[in-house]
Design goal:
Homodimer. The protein is built from 15 helices and 13 strands. Bound molecules: pyridoxal-5'-phosphate and (2S)-2-hydroxy-3-(4-hydroxyphenyl)propanoic acid (TYF).
């Protein structure tokens, strides 16, 4: 009966981790998946998470189902984080929020909403983007297209191409925007460019769908990293947002996130929430409790919130430091080439410009595991490995 089922290819990102685990090379380095590591390259559980958990355990709470829309304390916390506590849209009750299964699950609920209530709309994704975006919208049967984003010549944003493509998008289309720290390029629009994109969305009646997976990881400041979605709301646009706590709270495996819709009035928010609940009910019924309790505890507690910001700055700072070290090492080993893009890019990744053949050299010859688009996760690099990585890059670029 199932004899005709074909073998699926490994995931382009998670397949890298599988290959890394299988390697026996003592020098092996995993720069594939975007997951934070400390200077010893070990996974980190934040101190605020441990403190929140001990508070939660001392309360001896039950394991009842949450409501379909999730934990109320978490839903409040996540909107406060996104828009800033006391934001007019919150006071006016025009925000619909469902706790969902981290960023991916929240995007998927959003995609299901688009499939059902924006029938025929095309979703525009940046070229390149996080690979799973294509799967998430594609599997919901939503048509997607690319808009130009990365300019390989300047290693910067192709803003002209981006605006041309969005100008040409049919009214009613959806534009997926990375809230900050664009994955994989590490290149974000400037404030002026964000304003122009917001105006364009308004003029052309495009619906912005923000993927906020790195709030706090771009600048180390939660408010600054929410600049773009807040600006769009301020300009009177209705937006969808998928939020993730995988990276900024290090809750990867707990699957903590939310799908937020900021609407023009309270009635629309109530109707959209009712439909989001209906979609979530059929997808997974209700979200998990533990991670949401942790996030709510941290965001809603003044002391823990301040401590969290410090820990986040620590993570963002370590990444920035190894960025600088990698750039300097490459500059000294191969001064003919301009390596300044490494510290111009922000967030967890560097988009190196290595070709697939050069990536194969990195992996096969040097046991450096990375995605074939040339992205490296700097969260998986430490000072001790900078020189090894730089030598491998130079070897790969020269050959
Ligand atoms: N969106 C982007 C751009 C990401 O990079 C990621 C994770 O790497 C996600 C969404 C979703 O991750 P998660 O489902 O763990 O929240
Ligand atoms: O490194 C990245 O870009 C992500 C990481 O369920 C990731 O793909 C891994 C597992 C997962 C979601 C995201």
């Amino acid at each position: 009966r199932f004899a005709d089922v074909a073998q699926a290819p490994p995931d382009p990102i998670l397949g890298v981790s599988e290959a890394f685990r299988a390697s026996t090379d003592p020098n092996k380095l995993n720069l594939g998946v975007g997951a934070y590591r400390d200077e010893q390259l070990k996974p980190v559980v934040l101190s605020v998470v441990k403190k929140a958990e001990s508070k939660i355990f001392s309360r001896n709470e039950n394991k009842e189902y949450l409501t379909i829309e999730g934990l109320d304390a978490f839903r409040k916390a996540t909107v406060d984080l996104l828009l800033g506590a006391g934001h007019p849209a919150i006071k006016e009750g025009r925000v619909a929020v469902v706790q969902s299964l981290s960023g991916t699950g929240s995007l998927r609920v959003g995609a299901a909403f688009i499939a059902r209530f924006m029938k025929g709309a095309t979703v525009y994704l940046s070229n390149p983007t996080w690979g799973n975006h294509r799967n998430i919208f594609g599997d919901e049967g939503v048509e997607w297209k690319y808009y130009r984003y990365f300019d390989a010549d300047t290693v910067g944003l192709d803003f002209k191409g981006m605006t041309e493509d969005l100008q040409a998008a049919p009214p009613g289309s959806v534009v997926v925007l990375h809230g900050c720290a664009h994955n994989p390029t590490g290149i974000d629009p400037t404030k002026e460019q964000w304003a122009a994109i917001a105006d364009l969305c308004k003029e052309r009646n495009l619906m912005p769908f923000f993927d906020v997976a790195y709030q706090g990881f771009a600048t180390g400041d939660l408010d600054k990293d929410a600049y773009a979605p807040r600006l769009f709301v301020e300009r009177g646009l209705e937006i969808m947002v998928a939020q993730s706590y995988s990276k900024n709270l290090g809750l990867y495996g707990e699957r903590v996130g939310a799908l937020v819709m900021v609407l023009s009035d309270k009635e629309a928010a109530s109707r959209c929430l009712s439909q989001l609940k209906r979609l979530a009910r059929a997808l997974y019924s209700n979200p998990p409790t533990h991670g949401a309790r942790i996030a709510a505890e941290v965001v809603n507690d003044k002391e823990l919130f301040e401590e969290w910001k410090g820990e986040m700055r620590g993570m963002a700072g370590r990444i920035e430091r190894v960025r600088g070290e990698l750039q300097r090492s490459l500059e000294s080993k191969y001064p003919a080439k301009d390596w300044s893009f490494i510290t111009k890019q922000i967030g967890m990744f560097s988009f190196t410009g290595l070709t697939p053949a050069q990536v194969d050299n990195m992996t096969n010859k040097h046991a450096i595991f990375m995605t074939r688009d040339g992205r490296i996760s700097l969260a998986g690099l430490n000072s001790a490995k900078v020189e090894y990585l730089a030598d491998a890059i130079v070897d790969s670029v020269r050959n």
